[in-house]
Amino acid sequence: xxxxxxxxxLRKKIRSxxxxxxxxxxxxxxxxxxxxxxxxxxxxxxxxxxxYMSAGGEVDLQELIEDAERYGKTVYIPKVISKEEMRFYxxxxxxxxxxxxxxxxxxxxxxxxxxxxxxxxxxxxxxxMVPGVAFDKNGNRMGYGGGYYDRFLMDIDGSxxxxxxxxxxxxxxxxxxxxxxxxxxxxxxHDVRMDMIISEARIIIPSMxx
Length: 210
Hints:
With 210 residues, this protein is an alpha/beta fold. Helices cover 28% and strands 22% of the residues. The strands form 3 sheets. It has a 7-stranded mixed β-sheet with strand order 3-2-1-6-9-11-12. Strands 8-7-10 form a 3-stranded mixed β-sheet, with helices on one face.
């Protein structure tokens, strides 16, 4: 079976498990996962949180977003601009419905845009909360097939090679239910690895996995 077939099979299996969850289970596990995220130093020290609005039984980050704002962190959420591009805008609690039925930021003025190429991101500690269909213990992620996060994260990683941004810290956390963590995911050359994966049962740091 080739990589495409393996990924499609895994997507089908994981999506089925996620859609079988009732609202109570989603809420209960999301609360535990948010608590685990809040416990790590990378969250406590972050200035900027790139979060997401959940859909289809994904881990709900609303509690985390509210906590981040309460402690003075700046929160952004994504908006799909085209088939190739996703941008993050400042979270305000006002939404529109996006092309995939997902809540997106209503205020998309230039001043609300997160732009890692701007000078005001230098020396900032940025935490990216990354959803996905599945993750493995080596930090590999399988997305939904659109490539939005892969392109966005590749742009961030590319920016980190810029000498003028050498002091900017970016940590990518894969947000996951424990059943979404598998032994191995077929990897493509454009895939971006997570620095950490957090589920309701564990915190995985791929660099420490033997």
